[in-house]
Amino acid sequence: MPLIRNSETKVETIAVGFEFAEGPVWHPDGFLLFSDTSADTIYRWLPEGKIEIFRCPAGYPNGNTWDRQGRLVTAQHDRRLTRTEPDGMVVTLASHYEGKKLNSPNDVLVKSDGSIYFTDPPYGILEGSAVEPQPEELGFYGVYHLADDGTLTLLIADLMRPNGLVFTPDEQKLYVSDSQEGNVWVFEVRPDGTVTNGSIFADLKLPDQEPLADGLAVDSQGNLYATGPEGIWIFSPAGELLDKILLPENCSNVAWGDSDYKTLYITTYSSLYRIRLNIPGLPVWPMAN
């Protein structure tokens, strides 16, 4: 197993001053998109340090990813999952389950078959959130599968606060973080896209600290990068803690980027960071898979 990073490798601050940064995703044309949820904005960051607005208002965006056609898919705290068309039009993919409003879609990923997975905790409708507090309609916080034909299937309904999610490189397992419990679960993925045999994969809790488990990523060797207390916890596929990337503030999400996908871009509540690592990550852009 090669080292995750060299001893002299440091975390670099590349942008500051956001209200609640989230949802980083790299585009192979050489830029990063990320959300500022509370500011109702998706930003574009360019390597020369320029930051420009990609969309505002943006439905109080959180997680972002690309679909198989290279279109942006966004989990939004306005209770919708959306897709941005090439002409800029924003299409609602999901807003209700069995006739009831979703809570506030939080993070999202696309499987190689084009189907979409997303989490739906209540953070966007709670008191103190970016939007006005709204009543829950579902009574649970789910993880969902959205098929190409629009069929929305509830996969998991018994996590306290499902948040980040990511597949193993072979898509045979799905990791899901539970923010309230401060842990990461792993599920087996069936051929039809549903999941089974869930179990706790990693515990991120620290003594005397509030539980925290948020965004997730995996590298090309299957190591899991989980945002938690103090920074990013890195686990082997067997669950061994390999390393921890310390950050000066709470971390919300991570994404691989740059042409070799060896740079890990990191959003925290107020800032954007990056760090160069030795093992390339898995790009979510379809042409790179």
Question: What brief labels describe this structure?
Answer:
single chain; about 290 residues; mainly beta; four-stranded antiparallel β-sheet; 26 strands; about 45% strand
Largest sheet: 4 strands, antiparallel
The whole-angstrom Rg is 17 Å
- What is the overall shape? globular
Termini Cα gap: 23 Å
Strand tally is 26
Approximate helicity band: under 10%
Q: What is the overall pLDDT average?
A: 95
Counting H and I runs of at least 4 residues, what is the number of helices?
0
How much of the polypeptide forms β-strand, as a percent range? over 45%
Write the H/E string, N to C.
Answer: EEEEEEEEEEEEEEEEEEEEEEEEEE
Structural class: mainly beta
Low-confidence stretches: none
What this model shows, in words?
With 289 residues, this protein is mainly beta. The chain has a 4-stranded antiparallel β-sheet with strand order 1-26-25-24, with no helix packed on it. It has no helices and 26 strands. The chain has strands at 12-16, 21-27, 31-36, 41-45, 51-55, 61-66, 72-76, 80-84, 90-94, 96-97, 100-101, 108-110, 116-120, 142-146, 152-156, 162-167, 173-178, 183-189, 195-203, 216-218, 224-228, 231-235, 241-246, 251-257, 263-268, 271-276.
Short description:
This protein is mainly beta. It contains no helices and 26 strands.
What order do the helices and strands come in, and which of them pair?
Elements: E1 12-16, E2 21-27, E3 31-36, E4 41-45, E5 51-55, E6 61-66, E7 72-76, E8 80-84, E9 90-94, E10 96-97, E11 100-101, E12 108-110, E13 116-120, E14 142-146, E15 152-156, E16 162-167, E17 173-178, E18 183-189, E19 195-203, E20 216-218, E21 224-228, E22 231-235, E23 241-246, E24 251-257, E25 263-268, E26 271-276
